[in-house]
Amino acid sequence: MGSRTFGLFFALSAFLALGAKELYGQAKIISLAATSPADLSLVITSGAIQTIAGVTDNAVNNFPSPVVLQTTWSVNPGQTNTVNLVAYFLVPAQALVGATTQIPSSRVLARMSTGLPTAFTPITQNAFAGVGTAGGSLRLYSVNIGGSNKNSTRTDNLDLQLNLVGFPTLPAGSYAGVLNLRVITQ
Amino acid sequence: MHALLKSALVGTAALVLVGSSTASAQVGLTSNVATVALTATKAATLTVSTNVATATLANITDNSTANQFTPVSLTTDWNLNAGSSVRMIGWFATPAQALVNGTDLIPSSKVEGRVGATAFAAFTNGAVGGVGVAGGSLQLFSQAVAAGSYFGTRTDQLDLRLNLTGTTTMAGNYTGTLNLQAIVQ
Question: For chain B, which domains are there?
């Protein structure tokens, strides 16, 4: 609620209380509040399914295409300092799961050239403001909010890698996992 | 009037509180969770390697089995996700001409092989699972595999000899190629 609104309601209240001498009666205060809810959404426009058909041991394996993310927000700059995107695995020790072997999140690297990790970085950070998991998260961007971008949309490319350098030889088979992405205001 | 002024202040304060609660709600506001499905597939592998490219027999003795080639160390590596056995097959492409010296030929029936302490056997069997040739093949080992042993390796000594019992050869150098290939069944 802005200071102008506050002043208007205060003046109205004072007028009703002080200015109606001849109409003296029981004044009734009606408080009005209309709130436009903040909006925050995240959409993957492409690359939601990433597949490496032939993993190479002891090497860096790139996932084939970027994950294209579109974030849209409508927030009050007086109440929101930043908009942040966090990527995380629910179980960091088992980012990708195979029949007998698991690949931890420390072996999954992410990069966002328009964000914070501009170089490939393991997904091993802690949760940010309650979003993510300990040791299995990575903050991808943080946007300062002001009057000029209180209603805005941004599109980012997220690149992913599987770094198996020094990792024990993987048993043959398929390894699957889910990378979660969520936006949070601060 | 004082009471009315008090009411006005209370109402205004209430509005301020409403605004304050809205401000708090926008800190920590979270979006939906978007997900990316990741899949990485490691292909099954099966490899055979030898420590030498050539096994030699310096001096052939006719009418004898005392014709052993220099031994070959044979290493088999497998990384599988299915199958019940890994089998090693040795075979000659043309069984009637396992070793050749011009027009003098030694057939695969006179070439014998073994792995470990097993008995020598001639390369006269059929193909196994499409590996080998009819009448010119020999299964050298069959290694059982299962979910717990889909990832493994073994090294064997492959012994080869000529069984020339009842045979006299023409003098000269006899050369040939023994193919070694593993198969999962």
Answer: 45-184 (2.60.40.1090)
